[in-house]
Amino acid sequence: MSETAVYVCFYILIFLYGICIGSFSNVCILRLPAKESIVPGSHCMNCDYKLRWYDLIPLFSYLFLGGKCRKCGQKISKQYPLVEGANGLVYVVIFMVNGFNVMSALYCLCATALIALSVVDFRTYEIPDSFNVFILVLGIVATIVDRDHWKSHIIGMLCISLFLLIIYLVTAGRGIGGGDLKLMFAAGLLVGTKEIIFAFVLGCILGSIIHVIRMKVSNAEHRLAMGPYLSAGILISMLIGERVVDWYLTVSGLSRFI
Ligand SMILES: [Zn+2]
User: Fold this and answer.
1) pLDDT tens digit sequence for 51-85
2) Which residues are near ligand 1, the ion (C-beta closer than 5 Å)?
3) Where are the chain's structural domains?
4) What is the 3-state secondary structure (H, E, C) of the chain?
């Protein structure tokens, strides 16, 4: 087998792995906010049909069933295939950009949590602690694996989260959500200093632009859930954050001081 063929097989396997994890994360999205157990089997929300193994193949079952319940024909939420597909794609992109190493695997698991918490935050304006605890554990593992740069991980954990803590205290929780603060704390430990600063700046820019557009389009006041935007910032930063920040420091001449 040629080298290209081996790579293609690898990426197909990573994609399949990604959609399986995405399928599990769909269960978490549904059940964690309601504090339900994530163990028992799935059933149709409409007719209670207990899903068989062949109804639970990530992405493919949805496509094969045309997005409807096998028994009653009730439409299945598009969230399932979207979350699964997004997981698969993001996994492939992370391994393509960052190479085959432990950090890529940790980034993939973090990406799954980011996608899941974005959906939950978008719906409920709340980020369940379990997602942030999960990312924090990934951060601890990353700091051990990447111990030559442990300072970057520790400062990354504190720099944005302390800044947000001040805003949180000054505005009595109205300026920023506690969940967003914990997210930047946990993700900062995972990705490191430069990356978390880039993630935060990018998240704020994305958040304000998209929020204004949404309010203009729907002509209504929306509450702003920051989780999805911060998550997008973290995700993009895991891929290109360090390079962008280094480039910026060089062209601005600031690299001489750092
Ligand atoms: Zn049904």
Assistant:
1) 888 888 999 999 999 999 999 999 988 999 999 99
2) 44, 46-47, 49, 69, 71-72, 74
3) 1-100, 123-258
4) CCHHHHHHHHHHHHHHHHHHHHHHHHHHHHHCCCCCCCCCCCECCCCCCECCHHHCCCCHHHHHCCCECCCCCCECCCHHHHHHHHHHHHHHHHHHHHCCCHHHHHHHHHHHHHHHHHHHHHHHCCCCHHHHHHHHHHHHHHHHHCHHHHHHHHHHHHHHHHHHHHHHHHCCCCCCCHHHHHHHHHHHHHHCHHHHHHHHHHHHHHHHHHHHHHHHHHCCCCCCCCHHHHHHHHHHHHHHHHHHHHHHHHHCCHHHHC
